[in-house]
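Quick start: read one record
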Amino acid sequence: MTDTALSRRRFLQFSGLAMASGLAGCTSSMNTDEFREQTRPYFRNPALEGRPEYIDNRGPISIYGQTPPSGLLPDSSRYAAIYGPVNDGGFQVPAVPYQQIDARFYRQEVESPFAERPGTIIVDTGNRFLYLILANGRAMRYGVGIGRQGFAWSGRGVIQWKQAWPKWTPPDEMVKRQPELVKYSGANGGMAGGLNNPLGARALYIFQNGQDTLYRLHGSPEWKSIGKAVSSGCVRMLNQDVMDLYDRVKGKAPILVI
C-alpha cells in the first residue's frame, strides 16, 4: 500500500473519531426533556370544535370562503401575549387557556365579509362572531358566546355608551326565578364591578331610536362559552377581547345584529 493511501486512510480514521467525539459531547450536554418541552408544538383539539377535520366531496369546510386552520396553532407566542394575564382597574384578569378554544374564535384581522362603513360593529349570532369593520375592506373579528337574551333582538342600533367594570343589575324576572340574587336587585343597588360580575371587564350598551334595547356586548371569565349558545346573557366576549373592542370603539358607533 502506498504512503498516499495510508495517509488518506489515517486521515479518515482520525476524522471519524473527531466527529464521533464531537457528537458525543453535544449529546451529553443536551437536556433532552427540556428540549422536547421547549419545542413541543401546540395542536388544536378537534373534539373541542364540534366538527370533524376532514375534506369531503364538497371540498374543505369553510367559513365565508376561508378554510379553517389545522395543525399548528397560528402565532402561538402572539396569542399567549394577547390572552395573557392583565392588571386593569385594580383587578387581575387571569390568563385565558386559549389552546383549549377553537382557533377560529381567536381575535384576528380578516377580510370583511360585510359592506359596512369603518367603525361599524356587526354581531353574527349564527356563526358566533363579532366584527369591527376597519378601513380597506378589513375587519377585526372576535369569537363570542350568545346568550338567550342575545337571540331576542336583532337589527340596527348604536353603542349609546360603554363602561369599564360595569355594575350588574339582574332583571326582576330573574330575581323571581333565583331569589338568592335579590341582594343584587335594582332596589339594593346591583352588583359592583369585579371579576365575578357577569358583565365582565367591559360592557357596551346598545340603543335603538333613543331607547335602551337591553342588549349588551360584555366580557365574561367563562372562556368555555365562546363559540357556543349559552343559557343567559347577551353577547359574551373574552375579557381580553372586550377590553380591546372597548378601546377601539369611538363615539356612538353603529351596530348591526343579524
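The first strand starts at residue 86 and ends at 88.
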